[in-house]
């Protein structure tokens, strides 16, 4: 059954003592723990000596050719190294010598005591070690367990023996499962089996029984067929085809019958619970819920400046319906349930209400509000015989000054008495004075007043017989079911099914599950996966680093990974990236605006700008205030303090552009013959005379010393294109304070930026529009930020 053709089959077996359950680390599925000596023996068994091997390992080996010896030696060294590696996965055949039972298993670790093996509870039951006899006393002999210096367990006196063989298994392709009970119907077989087998099992053995938990249920399956090997297969790195067949015809008929009954009670049917779905604020939702079921609603949007009030009313006061709410966000990923909710009302009243203030910290970063309506299941009676409970869910928003949220209830003692009226001392009812004698005679014989809640009951009514008051708080009710529910949820201890936390009651357990439970699901802000908030190697939830950072233990550990800052290219830890970017933001807001070329056709800055946004201001560049590229054709080395020679050179350049043109087909300069034709300012064949040209350039020459006045020189195509794109980006944001500008600023895409910064962005990014917008977002302040 060797699965590796390059390595011969590994042969190793031994007999070990089975550790008792209390001295075995927690194991799941088919995992075992072996002693470190077993690993040494396995590596020794995997080593094959090739020194005396007569067969050459290379096809070109020639014993008479000394140049082939080096390749042969290297091939033999590689063979030894390859054969010293253990097979993956490493699987074992376990045999109980007392009853002959055989089960295959995978290795968890090599940390058991000398000559001892640790088994999971599944393997104990499969091998017959968890039967009638206790592992503490077998054949009248007691177990002694010692802890050595390394923390591993050693058995001082062997009791139960187990034979362990190493045996490689083929990758499985098919398995047949037979349910041991009728009526199994999970929502998703594929996801349930994949997750359970991947997390707990390395192998599957024919004839073993799998106990697969699914919420409050446990599905038991018999493995009754495997391929390609009928005895056992491995589940690592393989795609497995699964068939689920009934155990017999009677079970198949019973399963079909239950599925039909379940389909009648499916959500959305007349006999089932309501389907739930999305709701909005200021709406009334009427529905029904079966006992033990939940109806889930989602509120996606609401006014976060107002308070929210939830009111749940049962149509029949005898029906017990509960209300649970959880803000859905990165810190809360589970639907609200009895043992896992942030806000809840499961009192005995028929009218439930929950009020959320908009300042509640639980609503911070909430993406939605998850609301669940639960029909309480009476454990005394058969819940399947109950019809669905009818209810009305009302969601409304209230402001801080609203006083209509809590209706005022008028007590009987507050009713004013008339001149001929009197109040009964037994029932507090107002009756006429002339009939008070008859009323009291009847009332004292038939009615009784509860001294605690001041409610009046008939002495012979079942409500009075079942009326109760909690001695620990002010709760009360009129039936045994309400008392059982109150005692169970409020005064009975509860244990977390994930981390074994002991809670004082169900509300305490719900608080634990939504705050400190290691298995609470979160959406990690670094790996962006839905994971438990604390892993086995993560720091404690109450450590100072976790508390001060505001991160969960998983996020604190996962955030220790490093990445490169996209702005400065420094290596920064993920959890420090937010603080690091704030420093860049301060630099962005404090930067000085770059100077741009005075030439209206040029898309360059005067001084240049760094990739990170650093403006290299170097003072005056030249007497024209243009960039070096535009000033290059006008540069001479002569001394010209008055600028007269420079003015003449500028005049000649303008005349050359207007009379001859630059000759570039992309030119859009209105002071160029080619550019004027491209802009439609001059017809084809039409020429400008020298006199007309001088009159056009005269105002420009007169304002040449005014650095704010533009100049019009022809430039290269890339620079001209960047100038056009910069004008487009600057126009996208609109003017500061405009509606369009505000809307674009929320997007953070090139919105509301000064024209000089747009020129700089495209110069840095080589004219790439999208990269330029990203550079603006990272390196340039907006107009609104500059105005502050």
UniProtKB/TrEMBL annotation:
Residues 1-24, 261-287 are annotated as: Disordered. It comes from the Eukaryota. This is Ubiquitin-protein ligase E3A N-terminal zinc-binding domain-containing protein. Residues 272-399 form the DUF7590 domain. The keyword RNA-binding does not apply. Keywords: ATP-binding, Nucleotide-binding. It holds the Pfam family UFD1_N2. It comes from Lepraria finkii. Transmembrane segments: none annotated.
């Amino acid at each position: 059954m060797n699965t590796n053709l390059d390595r011969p089959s590994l042969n190793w077996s031994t007999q070990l003592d089975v550790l008792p359950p209390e001295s075995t680390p927690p194991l799941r599925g088919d995992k075992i723990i072996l002693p470190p000596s077993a690993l040494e023996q396995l590596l020794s068994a995997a080593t094959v000596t090739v020194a005396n091997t007569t067969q050459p390992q290379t096809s070109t080996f020639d014993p008479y050719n000394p140049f082939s010896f080096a390749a042969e030696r290297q091939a033999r060294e590689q063979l030894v190294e390859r054969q010293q590696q253990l097979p993956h996965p490493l699987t074992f055949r376990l045999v109980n010598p007392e009853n002959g039972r055989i089960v295959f298993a995978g290795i968890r670790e090599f940390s058991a005591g000398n000559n001892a093996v640790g088994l999971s509870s599944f393997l104990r039951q499969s091998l017959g070690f968890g039967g009638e006899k206790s592992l503490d006393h077998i054949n009248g002999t007691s177990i002694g367990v010692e802890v050595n210096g390394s923390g591993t367990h050693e058995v001082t006196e062997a009791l139960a023996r187990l034979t362990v063989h190493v045996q490689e298994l083929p990758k499985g392709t098919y398995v047949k499962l037979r349910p041991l009970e009728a009526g199994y119907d999970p929502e998703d077989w594929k996801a349930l089996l994949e997750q359970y087998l991947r997390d707990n099992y390395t192998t599957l053995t024919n004839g073993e029984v799998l106990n697969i938990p699914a919420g409050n249920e446990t599905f038991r399956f018999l493995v009754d067929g495997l391929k390609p090997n009928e005895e056992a297969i491995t589940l690592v790195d393989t795609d497995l085809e699964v068939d689920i067949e009934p155990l017999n015809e009677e079970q198949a008929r019973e399963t079909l019958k239950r599925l039909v009954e379940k389909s009648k009670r499916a959500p959305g049917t007349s006999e089932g619970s309501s389907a739930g779905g999305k709701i909005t604020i200021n709406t009334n939702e009427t529905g029904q819920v079966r006992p033990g079921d939940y109806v889930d609603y989602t509120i996606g949007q609401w006014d976060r400046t107002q308070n929210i009030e939830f009111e749940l009313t049962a149509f029949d006061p005898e029906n017990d319906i509960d209300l649970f709410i959880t803000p859905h966000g990165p810190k809360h990923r589970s639907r609200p349930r009895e043992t896992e909710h942030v806000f809840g009302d499961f009192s005995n009243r028929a009218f439930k209400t929950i009020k959320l203030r908009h300042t509640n910290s639980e609503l911070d970063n909430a993406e939605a509000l998850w609301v669940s309506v639960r029909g309480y299941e009476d454990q005394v009676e058969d819940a399947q015989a109950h019809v669905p409970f009818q209810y009305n869910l009302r969601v409304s928003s209230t402001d801080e000054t609203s006083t209509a949220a809590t209706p005022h209830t008028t007590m009987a003692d507050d009713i004013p008495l008339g001149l001929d009226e009197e109040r009964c001392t037994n029932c507090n009812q107002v009756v006429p004075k002339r009939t008070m004698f008859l009323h009291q005679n009847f009332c004292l014989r038939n009615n009784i007043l509860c001294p605690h809640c001041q409610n009046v009951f008939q002495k012979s009514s079942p409500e009075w017989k079942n009326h109760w008051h909690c001695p620990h708080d002010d709760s009360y009710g009129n039936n045994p079911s309400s008392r059982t529910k109150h005692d169970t949820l409020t005064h009975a201890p509860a244990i977390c099914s994930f981390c074994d936390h002991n809670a004082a009651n169900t509300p305490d357990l719900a608080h634990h599950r939504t705050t400190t439970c290691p298995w609470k699901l979160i959406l990690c802000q670094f790996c962006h996966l839905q994971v438990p908030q604390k892993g086995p190697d993560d720091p404690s939830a109450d450590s100072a680093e976790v508390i001060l950072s505001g991160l969960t233990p998983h996020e604190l550990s996962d955030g220790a990974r490093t990445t490169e800052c996209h702005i400065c290219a420094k290596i920064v830890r993920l959890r420090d990236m937010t603080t690091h970017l704030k420093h860049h933001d301060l630099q962005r807001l404090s930067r000085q605006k770059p100077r741009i070329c005075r030439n209206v056709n040029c898309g360059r800055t005067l001084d240049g700008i760094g990739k990170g946004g650093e403006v290299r201001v170097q003072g005056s560049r030249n007497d024209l205030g243009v960039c070096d590229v535009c000033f290059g054709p006008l540069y001479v080395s002569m001394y010209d303090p008055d600028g007269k020679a420079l003015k003449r050179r500028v005049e000649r350049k303008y005349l050359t552009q207007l009379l001859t043109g630059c000759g570039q087909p992309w030119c859009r300069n209105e002071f160029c013959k080619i550019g004027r034709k491209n802009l439609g300012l001059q017809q084809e064949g039409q020429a400008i005379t020298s006199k007309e040209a001088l009159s056009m350039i005269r105002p420009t020459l007169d304002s040449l010393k005014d650095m704010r006045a533009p100049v019009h020189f022809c430039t290269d195509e890339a620079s001209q294109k960047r100038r056009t794109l910069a004008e487009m980006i600057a126009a996208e944001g609109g003017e500061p304070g405009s509606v369009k500008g505000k809307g674009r600023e929320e997007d953070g895409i090139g919105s509301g930026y000064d024209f000089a910064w747009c020129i700089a962005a495209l110069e840095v990014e080589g004219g790439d529009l999208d990269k330029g917008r990203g550079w603006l977002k990272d390196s340039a302040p907006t107009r609104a930020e500059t105005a502050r």
